[in-house]
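In this section we walk through a basic example: taking a raw amino acid sequence and producing a predicted 3D structure, encoded as discrete structure tokens. The instruction is simple. Fold the sequence below.
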Amino acid sequence: MDLISVIIPAFNAATRIKFTLESVIAQSYPNIEIILVNDASTDNTEELAREILERSGKNFKLITHGLNKGECASRNTGIKNSTGKFISFLDADDMLEKNFISSLHEAISKNNCDITFSNVIEKFIGKNFDRQWRFVKSVPYVASGEDFILSKHVPAVWTCLYSRELIKKYNLLFHEGCTAGGDIEFITKALCVAKKVTFVNECLYIYIHHEEMGSVRDNNTSSKKILRYEHNTGANLRASEFLARHGSKILKTRAKKILIPQSLIRFFNLAAMKNDRAAFNSFLKDSEALQNLKRALSLYTLLRKPEVFFKALAVLFTPSIYFYSRKILKK
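The resulting token sequence is shown next.
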């Protein structure tokens, strides 16, 4: 029976970690390796997790960072310390339905796929309703990862089961220090190089909404919002550059003429948001950035993403007007 590694990055997750771990321990699939990476928590996350795991009878590793490194670094630590044939990521405040692992393992094995995923059930703490989150609504099928990207059926990174062979072959890791966009960067890269992908048409991952969740915590000040915007932009650019290198002709064209210019425009927007004209002008002097922006001035981009076409046009030919217009809009 194949060993499956479930990687759980955790930072100050004491209020939720019990439910998360118990949902993994209760999985109907028996051969699981639980890897919890405690990212220098300042609460009793580590003590609670160790107590639960030690009495679970499950194979586990509890790794603690000496310094807080962030979720992306914690997942990388989990990957490097995992031994399973397949790898799954679970956030420390979420849960899994009992058949999450068994259903995904059956689908990925039966179809000899690189990745498989499920849909999501969203639960709102303190509210009396749940909500389904479906990435694909049709009958399950097998296709290349590129097909899922092109059809915009891109799942969340934590709903998937990944082949270790795929991760190892392409050295797929999370960009450490990235506080926003790291998930979409990883799954986009993984889908780009995945030859076969399928999905389970059930909501098996339980995404918990609560007041302490990171997406709420990290958006409570203007400076944090700007930092997340910057990191998200960097993640989109890295993912787009990966598509330009490894994708099919269709994906390479989309990356070069739409996705990369779109990310670069966001960097110009960021400089305007910060009222940093020096940074804005520095981007204008970057020959590679300008060459990439000029690729957006094509009929291909105009027909498929006119917003990118016209913004690239404005940045290249009326940079001062663009800077001040974005600065005003972001106030």
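Looking at the output, two observations stand out. The two ends are 57 Å apart (CA to CA). The chain has two domains: 4-217, 248-329. In the next section we compare this with other chains.
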